Amino acid sequence: MPCWDDLPGLRRALRSVMEQRQTGYRNVRVVVFEDHSSNMISSEEIEAYRDRMNVTFLRNPKPPNQGSAYGKAKLFDFLRENALPHEYVIVLDGDDVLPDSWTIHNIHVALQRKKPWFAWGRQNGKFSASCTKVEKDSDLSLRFIKWSFCHPRIFRAHLLNHIDDRDLQRQDGQWLQKATDAAFIYKFMELAGPDRVLFLHEQPLYNYTFGHQNGLKVFRKRKILIDKRNVQRHEPAEMMKYDIHVLCLLQSKEKAKEVLKGLAGTRLNVDQSLHIHVWNNRSILHIEKVASEVKEQYPEVKIGVSRMGKRSGELDWMLFPRYVMKHESVDYFIILDDDQVVSERTIPKLYDWRRPCSLTMLGEKSAREVSAVDPDLPNVRTVW
Q1: Would residue 185 be called left, alpha or beta, if left means φ above 0 and alpha means ψ between -120 and 50 degrees?
Q2: Is 98 exposed, middle or buried (0-12, 13-18, 19+ CB in 10 A)?
Q3: Is omega for the bond preceding 2 within 30 degrees of 0, making it cis?
Q4: Which of 8, 60, 6, 52 lies closest to 30, judged by CA?
Q5: Its pTM surpasses 0.70
Q6: What are the pLDDT digits (tens) for 219-272?
């Protein structure tokens, strides 16, 4: 929540977030960056908000006011350190509000259904008629087509690892004063690719305020055009691959090489990459040696070996993925035991299917039924 010089507007914005508790969302975390202004929130009021909600206040208490891009950069720095990779970030400007107490609920439902990396929605107020999906019918970069993005702006936190201050600055190192949203929106959409962006069109999810500090009122048209061209000068970011995560329990050192080579030899689509997480508590040195040999043969495949610790059971199958998700952005895990060997197309087909399921071993009735449709799939037991 970036803001400056509008304390009444900031209070309204915070109140609209607190109202989400009426529909069960009590754990929404709010991060406010208040740039220097003549009307800043008092320390007493900050403590009062902290008693009522999960909120962090970041501030630039001394002049000069650095502008919207600087505020976003400081918020992004904080989120890189404090948000988990798969968590969603919603940008709510400090002078705008969420329209009702169901807004976060409606956003959450849409995001869980489609799992995009970047999303935007419809808004109430000025410019609401321009809220549309992207119509890209030419070879022009996303940065040059005629398309207007709207509020709210929503993205996966892991995308912040691919943006830095230079994306929010002019060529001379000064902070952008306009086009500060475009600076990160374009890059996040380029990184995500068209299949991982989503327009939330069903209903307005944001009340837009065209207040006194709006950049269109503060800055002259020439400065607005200069900053827009500064954003357009950047080369488009290359779309990130679909990283397929396979969690493999290896307890038999005799089968380790066969299983790992079978996985590493997976025939992927051009936009996919493979990350194998080996989970082991027996013959760990042997497994690490085998993993190193397989990585030499398949350098493009990521292979990590982790010890299970003292326990081994169904609970640990749940805990280990949670540990991985604290450090990497993961949509789904494909889980294998060391007695399950896959064909070279099993893994990408399961990922393309992309929904939770369980498949039994080849030879059982349910497996034979599936194999009549696709013989690659029944070799895998469980997919999350």
Answers
A1: alpha
A2: buried
A3: no
A4: 52
A5: yes
A6: 566 777 888 888 999 999 999 999 999 988 877 777 888 889 989 999 998 999
